[in-house]
Amino acid sequence: MELWDLYDKDRNKLERQAIRGEKLNDDEYHIVVNIWIKNSKNEYLITQRAEGRSYEFMWECTGGSAEAGEDSLSVAIRESKEELGIILEKLNGILLGSELRYYSGCNDILDVWIFESETSLENLKIQTEEVNAVKWASIEEIKRLYEDGKFEANAFFKEIIYSN
To answer: Whole-model pTM?
Structure first.
């Protein structure tokens, strides 16, 4: 059972928590992160969603929801370790920005983080329940995947991919 802290639209913590999957009120939000991991070749570590998950086989950057008591940066570190087996350093994380997203019954505050890493694919330990495949991809390859409808683009995607 995953428990979420809830916030208002201004990121003030509310007195209420929710269990993942529980319907949220329109004025309640939980924290979600996207983590873009970039290497010195200007490639990004992208993952393909596992079979049976929503948007199965779509490519994306790593991400996940904050559990009760976690801040956004801690979530980025935990999710990267859980899904990829990669240890990211808090001091290397740069918050690109935040965005309120409105979904019926499950609004969120999405924080987008960028980290630098030179991790080789051979050193990764993917969580097969979440991730089907992983690869380092160039900006051009990510653009092609996106244009072909095979990459899930969230907030700040264009700032990351189309500003290079």
So the answer is: 0.92
